[in-house]
Each structure stands twice: as C-alpha cells, then as structure tokens.
Amino acid sequence: MFEIDWNGSSNQELDLSTDPDDTYIVVNAVGCKKCKTTAVSQHRHDYVSCECGAVSADGGHDYIRRVGNLENMIELNIISSPEVSKRIQVICDNSHVIKEYRMKQQAEMFAALDDFKEKNKNNM
After folding, report:
1. CA atoms within 13 A on the CB side of 116
2. What phi, psi does 86 have (nearest 5°)?
C-alpha cells in the first residue's frame, strides 16, 4: 500500500489536504536512508529515532519536527484535511510504516520483559 522507496525522493509525503491553513497530521514519520527503518511520532512530544539514531521525528498529530542530517531523511508524513482524516486513519493503520513501528514496539516490550525476568529470576 505505502511502500518506501529507500533510493527515491527525500519527500514521499502524502498530502491530501485542500487548504494549507486547515490540515491534520495523520501520520508523522521519517525514514532513515542509512538503516532503512522509520521513526513514527504518535503524539505530542513523542520524540522517536530510527534504529541507528541518525534521524528522529517529534510532534505526533500536533506538529512536525525533525532532527538529523537532511541527506539521511525521507519524509513519510500523511497529511489531510480534518474532515477526511478519520477515513484516512483506517488506511494508515494498515500501512507498512505503522506496521513496522508496531513490530518494533512489540520487540522492545518483549526484550524488556525478558530482561526483567532475568534480573528477578532468583525472586520468583
């Protein structure tokens, strides 16, 4: 559906808004050309980096902030007008970028649980 072209344009943003003064950030994401992973900011002040730390996204649905070298970034935002954002959100929830982000979150959660078990195995 939303495939990332890692060797393509640095701006692969999808802008579906009709009025630049009335927009909604559906997905706030940046791709890293170095490690070929994404950073997706889910909410305000959610500062997230790619796996190698070269690029970061911040702002969630409220604002778009980037940190890192512009040469390493691929803009992957999806922007729309507020009235169609709910319909687009359903599509975006199934996108490659969001699925990759959720898999990363799940892997981090399992790693933290394994670490907790290892540290507390004598107390169980």
Report:
1. 6
2. -65, -40
Q: Residue 3 has what DSSP assignment?
A: -
Alpha-carbon distances of 89 from 48, 81, 86, 107, 112, rounded to whole Å: 20, 12, 5, 24, 29
Tens digits of per-residue pLDDT, 85-117? 655 666 666 666 667 777 777 888 888 888 877
Q: How is the chain split into domains, by residue range?
A: 14-117
Q: How confident is the model at residue 72 (pLDDT cuts 50, 70, 90)?
A: very high
In this prediction, residue 93 carries a pLDDT of 64
The CA distance from 47 to 95, in Å, is: 21
How far apart, in whole angstroms, are the C-alpha atoms of residue 17 and residue 57?
Answer: 21
- Number of H helices and E strands in the chain, helices first, is 2, 8
Q: 34 is written with which tokens?
A: 């170095």
